[in-house]
Amino acid sequence: MGYLEYTLPPVVILSVALAIRQYYSSSQRKKAAVDSKKGSEKKGYYAAEDEPIPEPTPLMITPEQVKSYDDRPWRPFRWPYHQTMSIFKLDVNHWLDMDKFYWHYIQEKERIYHEYGDQNIGWLPESWDACVELMEIVRDHMVKRYPLLFTKVDGSNKIIKNELTGETLDTTFPLKEHPLVYVSKMAKEDFYIVLKRDDGRHYMVAGAVPFPGGSFAIKDKIGKHIDQIHSDVPYYETKLKRSMERWFERMQPSELVERASWYMTWDRKLMCSNVYALKADEKIDSDIPPTEFNFRVERQTLRRLPRSKAIIFTNHPVYYGIEEVKDEPLIPSLIKKIIFEGPEDIIKYKNFESFRDHAAPYLDSLIQRQIDLGIIKEDTPIKTLDTYPFAHFVKDAQPDGWKSPHESAKEYQKNLDPKKFEV
Ligand code: HEM
Known about the structure:
By secondary structure, the chain is of the alpha+beta class. It has one domain (3-421). It is built from twelve helices and ten strands. The strands form two sheets. The chain has a seven-stranded antiparallel sheet. It has a three-stranded antiparallel sheet with strand order 3-4-5, covered by helices on one side. The longest helix is centred in the N-terminal third of the chain and has 35 residues, at 9-43. The radius of gyration is 22 Å and the shape is globular. The structure holds protoporphyrin IX containing FE. Residues 399-423 are annotated as: Disordered. This is HRQ family protein.
């Protein structure tokens, strides 16, 4: 059964609208390509429209290899910590990364859509062309980047088999489900679709966001413009707004970027982390062993679709145990510094106060351990790693992903309790 059959009545209404929309879709898409070119001249979007859009190169990993494959090791800790866009160029090969948690994420998406419906997935009618284009670009990306994981069933890319889940996905028209459902059955990322309206502002017009982490519901963001969406974000008005506007105006389909932020929690839930499930001023349960602490990286990408001109924002949570990174130079020191001495509003936004006193003795013991083992010195300056936003060993990519060279990390991985991933 499809996701949509479980969701709420407005979705049923939208499904009917969707069938009608599909009928007109292909001729409109052709027209949109012409109009948007005109529009782009009018709005000054694209100085270099003919710049080729980068294509991924094949990575020949098999479903069996994915079971132990690791994502790039994210360590996005900055000191000094200033709120900035902190975006960097994205290699298209890493737009939709693959790792051993793939199955869990795809299953969780399905469960969350069934249980929570439009709290986590939704779209406005104006987003149709962009959602179709997104579905096609994700599908083509997966087939090209992971030829052994996403295979062609009919010789073209239109009907493909996801070899990881065993599901055949038929993207020929008329579609049986909304394009965002197909996207969610291929990629483990959350997707946000943003369009510029006639008032010149950028609005979120659709989203498939099963893993917001708990600080917001996507239902409350769809239809809002970027400033409203970021109204609770610390220092948005003073440090982010203007550079983001400028970036959105100028962004080309050929220029992909990524960024990463993080917060700490003591679970691995994808939809709502424990740290955001606490009530105001509530503190962590003092029985929680500090070795349970994780940091959740919110790995984000931005790209513009060439046809609809929509901006696609993806977010992908990745969890790492503090125990897992305890022997990486300076990581415990950076975390301790940021949760106690970071910018005040960020400390509040990420709810650091709810657990930091509980975590402090543990972090101190890890810092001392690093000094005792000679990993750092007492006076090693605490500052952003040279390999930011990745771990110090990122250069040592291996065929099965990026594995930590530290024995303590291997031990941690070996003993990682699968129950930790349950909701
Ligand atoms: C360069 C572009 C962007 C930057 C620099 C940016 C920055 C941020 C920052 C700093 C936060 C606070 C959490 C964190 O530390 O990461 C945030 C939250 C958020 N961003 Fe963005 N963002 C960008 C683009 C977007 C886009 C395109 C969307 C899609 C609509 C989006 C949706 C959100 C949402 C939903 C939140 C959570 C807000 C809440 O807590 O209520 N962001 N963003």
